[in-house]
Amino acid sequence: MPTKPVRQGLLRLPANLNKIRKYRDKTIDEILAMPGVPPAAVKTINKNLTRVGALLSWGVARKHVSHNMAAGSGVIDRADPRDSKT
Predict the structure, then answer these.
(1) Mean per-residue pLDDT, 73-84
(2) Cα 21 to the center of its chain, rounded Å
(3) What is the C-alpha separation between 72 and 19, in angstroms, rounded?
(4) Are 85 and 15 in contact (CB under 8 A)?
(5) pLDDT-derived band of residue 32, with 50, 70 and 90 as boundaries?
(6) Is the backbone of residue 36 left (phi > 0), alpha (psi -120 to 50) or beta?
(7) 26-35 CB burial, b ≥16 within 10 A, e <16
(8) Which of 33-37, 38-42, 69-73, 82-86 has the lowest mean pLDDT?
(9) How far is it, in rounded angstroms, from Cα 58 to Cα 81?
(10) Both ends of the chain: CA-CA distance in Å?
């Protein structure tokens, strides 16, 4: 499973794709092919990558997978820190 295409797909997926009706009955490929889909926040993407990494770490420890492909694959938020609301 190549890491880069998975990561690039995650960067383009919308937030709440199971809650928004127009995305609900579509495959990931169909959603990615739709024009004008607003991507999820960088924080959400990193949270999902952390979860996948934890699952893969579990698999490595139990020898179900050879290595954790999600390790170190976080996304850097390029937004201007002055624009944050914190």
Answers:
(1) 64
(2) 20
(3) 29
(4) no
(5) very high
(6) left
(7) eeeeebeeee
(8) 82-86
(9) 34
(10) 37
Q: Average pLDDT of 58-68?
A: 92
* Per-residue confidence (pLDDT) for residue 14, from 0 to 100: 94
Structure tokens at 61: 């420890």
pLDDT-derived band at 27 (thresholds 50, 70, 90) equals very high
Confirm if 44 and 15 have CB atoms less than 8 A apart.
yes
Residues 6+ apart with CB under 8 A from 34: 26
Q: Which of 1, 52, 5 is nearest to 28 (CA)?
A: 5
Distance, in Å, from the CA atom of 32 to the CA atom of 37, rounded to the nearest integer, reads 8
Distance from CA of residue 66 to its chain's centroid?
Answer: 21
